Amino acid sequence: MSSALPKPRGWRALFTWPRLRTTAITCAIVSVPFHFTWEPALYSLWLQVFGVGLGVMLVFGLFEQWPRRLPRWLARWALQVAAVWLAVPLLLFISYTLRTQVGAPPFWQEESRLEGFFVFSFIGTLLAPWMALAALVRQREAWAREQALAFELERSELARQALDARMRLLSAQMQPHFLFNTLANVQALVEAGSPRAAQLLQSLTAYLRAALPRLDDPAATLGQEVERVRAYLDLMQMRMPDRLQFALQVDPGAGGLRCPPMTLLTLVENAVRHGIDPSEEGGRIDIEARRDGARCRLRVADTGVGLRAERGGQGTGLAALRERLQLLHGGDATLKLSAVIPHGVCAELDFPARP
Hints:
Layout: H1 17-31, H2 42-65, H3 76-98, H4 111-191, H5 197-211, H6 222-239, E1 244-250, H7 263-276, E2 283-292, E3 295-302, H8 316-329, E4 334-339, E5 345-352
Parallel strand pairs: 1-2
Antiparallel strand pairs: 2-3, 3-5, 4-5
């Protein structure tokens, strides 16, 4: 019956209310049968029984804490039970001795008092060890519940930390993906000798200065995400002014909803990279964000080249986005890609609306 669970320490552990209550109830039950045969005043019976019961309770608690270390062959529960069993006759001997009047013979020389001593000793030594064992069982059950609760709290905290770490990893994977794509666009403009290259680079610098500090913010809002999308599309429109048009429709009540950073931006960037860029005539991107009751719905539709075999809808950005949604919302978030007639792709994202 050894246990690694922590034991209570200090004097307060000796006088806990459950122990006092159990001791009082037990002593009351033991005292009742003697009410009819007890010759002295009844209060002396109660004082004697409750005094012995309190002493046994203190012995139980004392050996629960002392000595701090025991030999390997001696279990603490066995020490407590043995101490309680020996304490009953010893405490009764002290009680009967103290109750002997001055000048009177000792109680063992009086037949009635000696008989009472043996009766109380028999009942006490029979009952006290079982009460101690019952207390130990209840105590271990309480410690086990506390330990299970502590383990569950620790497991929940570790799971939360693991989720945060995974989310940071996915965000770290998506950020270079977005930055490298944007820098590649700047490089293409510079290599083409476009006079708009300097303006584009300046706009990109301003965008990164505002956006990057918030990409890892877990409490980002949809309004902030829309701002990043607008800045990104402004950059892309500067690179291909004749080939890209876009429109943003945002429900006023949706701006304050919680939105994982780069969620909408990933869909828009995917539409530009895989839809508009490969198309010779370019195209248009329509972005819609609205709140529908307890749901938040995002829609990004482009008129680009459509769902080609090499596109597949499972690029690095979308794959990371799907995993982030799974970690955050489980099966309560969906991302669907569908074809637009006559050509293009529509991405629809649905997740819980949380302020």
